[in-house]
Amino acid sequence: xxxxxxGNLQAGLPGLEREIHDTIWKVEHLDHRGAASDLLRGLIxxxxxxxxxxxxxxxxxxxxxxxxxIPHVGFWVEYPNLVMDGVKYASAFITELIxxxxxxxxxxxxxxxxxxxxxxxxxxxxxx
Length: 128
What we know:
Elements: H1 2-10, H2 13-28, H3 35-62, H4 73-97
Helix pairs in contact: 1-2
């Protein structure tokens, strides 16, 4: 798999087009034997290359050390919270879709958020 990828990359633009074509085929034909595992393997390879090249660049060009070498470290630190927000949103959306009780602010069922109406006109007093 790595030899095939490196061969495609060495071929230049035609090899890159072949790699993209193969990836699209794998996505469209996940029911074929081995297509999903090939797709997952390719995703893992891309992630490893992303982290290795990004870390090497940040270390050599920017002098980063330790966790600062991770490319886009702020995003990766915040990622678990972003996933939790997405799960809360999807849960609230599905609950409302099937006729359940609408979720309270920030998708916290039954909870309240201090100052939840601060961005509304509920407490608006016009200036004179």
